[in-house]
Amino acid sequence: MSTFTSTVRPFTETTFPIEKIASSLFSEQAKAIRALQEREERFKLLVQNAFDIIMIYSKEGIIQYQSESIERSLGYNDKENIGKSIFEVTMLDPEDEPKLQLLFKKVVQAPDKNLRGEFRLKHKNGSYRKMQIVFRNLLGNENIKGIIANYQDITNNNAETEADD
Q1: Which among 116, 88, 107, 120 is positioned nearest to 146, based on CA atoms?
Q2: pTM for the full predicted model
Q3: Is 111 left (phi over 0), alpha (psi -120 to 50) or beta?
Q4: Among 8, 56, 74, 83, whose CB has the most other CB atoms within 10 angstroms?
Q5: Residues 26 and 92 in one domain
Q6: Are residue 43 and residue 67 in the same domain, yes or no?
Q7: Is 145 left (phi over 0), alpha (psi -120 to 50) or beta?
């Protein structure tokens, strides 16, 4: 019969380097947080400096988000229309409203599909801009929970094309 002997030693840094483990874990966590902050800042700068307008709508068409580029393109503050319906804002040309309502209904019924249309939007100075809008229904996406719309000003596209010929 064999006997088992053991020695009990108190925890010390040499037997259980808890400070080293904790330091390593916190260092890794700090790196991950820093990387996340850098990605968020990069995304923010991309959106802020884009020429296209990015908007997010609820299923009912309520504006939840507008990128800052709306001020460059249409003269409106990015907070100005938050909480209003896409159909109530004064920037949509009244003649285009039925076409937009039809397209928006289609978007609501078409998850993860891109649907496109052209509409006239009123600049804050009273002039109209022709915009191409691409809608994408991401209502089922946990991070968005809305309908994304990318607006691109195509007012001068025909003039540029003619000049290139």
Answers
A1: 107
A2: 0.70
A3: beta
A4: 74
A5: no
A6: no
A7: left
